[in-house]
Amino acid sequence: MIIGIDVGGTNIDGVIIENKKIIKRIKNTVDKENLSPTIFKAIKELTHDIDKSKIQRINLSTTISTNAIVE
Questions:
Q1: For residue range 20-39, what is the model confidence (pLDDT) as tens digits?
Q2: What's the 3-state SS for 3-65?
Q3: CA nearest 48: which of 70, 29, 66, 24?
């Protein structure tokens, strides 16, 4: 089981992938002032009803640093 989190400038998207299929997905608004809690909230929301021992890895991607340079 893999968790994927994508933090954009406006939204945070998350998925759980198991056996090459998306079994759960979420989309929340990003709180730029409280980014870490926003990420942790997304992970908790994704994993609250799954067997956490099956998680093999968590992948995190973000455009926030790139956007900060461009702006």
A1: 999 999 999 999 888 899 99
A2: EEEEECCCEEEEEEEECCEEEEEEEEECCHHHHHHHHHHHHHHHHCCCCHHHCCEEEEEECHH
A3: 24
Neighbouring CB atoms inside 10 A of 7's CB total: 21
- Whether residue 66 is predicted with pLDDT greater than 80 in this model: the reply is no
Query: Which residues lie closer than 8 Å to 15 by C-beta, 6 or more apart?
Result: 3, 4, 22, 24, 25, 26, 46
Task: Decide if pLDDT at 6 tops 80.
Answer: yes
- The pTM score is 0.83
What's the chain's Rg over C-alpha atoms? 13
